[in-house]
Design goal:
By secondary structure, the protein is α+β, with helices and mostly antiparallel strands. It has a single domain, classed as 2-Layer Sandwich (Alpha-Beta Plaits). It is built from 4 helices and 8 strands. α1 runs antiparallel to α2.
């Protein structure tokens, strides 16, 4: 059964929407494990800070079904499917890794191409699964995070007492 890792982020009422997403993820995917939650600046546009985390879970669902369920959760959190890419959002759920699967389709690329470029994805994933080996670069997530330049886009940990849901 493959392990799936999903990045979650919001900068529109983030505590509310991430709490809702955490609860919905738990309904769809048993065995959730959460990284710590982090605050970080918006990337690609001027906007409110995001709060991000990564969640991992085992599944026997096909990757297409996982993606479909994530889209349903995004919509429950108020994100329309046609939302612009570089804009504020109530919920963003992105599959980072689905086991060691490599996939390149119009709907989904695995591993997620910007995983190795975005602190808000790689950092929380390293908290959750540092020994996991990236399927195309063949280094552990912990090693990749250890070599990552964190100065350009710092992550600010959010104490557990300040978040609702899984963080």
């Amino acid at each position: 059964m493959p392990a799936v890792y999903v990045a979650a982020g919001s900068n529109v009422e983030p505590e509310k929407h991430l709490g809702l997403a955490s609860a919905e993820l738990g309904k769809h995917f048993p065995g959730l494990r959460f990284s710590p939650w982090y605050r970080n600046r918006a990337v690609g546009f001027n906007g409110a800070d995001f709060i991000n985390f990564v969640v991992g879970f085992p599944t026997d669902l096909a990757v297409e079904e996982v993606l479909a369920r994530l889209h349903v959760i995004e919509e429950l959190c108020g994100r329309p499917r046609a939302a612009p890419r570089w804009a504020p959002r109530s919920m963003d759920l992105d599959i980072l890794l689905y086991g060691d699967r490599v996939l390149d389709t119009p709907a989904l690329r695995l591993p997620r191409p910007d995983l190795l470029k975005r602190a808000y994805m790689l950092g929380p994933l390293a908290d959750l699964a540092p020994a996991l080996v990236h399927p195309t670069v063949h280094s552990t997530i912990g090693d990749l995070w250890g070599r990552f330049d964190r100065t350009a886009h710092p992550l600010v940990p959010i104490p557990t007492s300040e978040v609702g849901g899984g963080g």
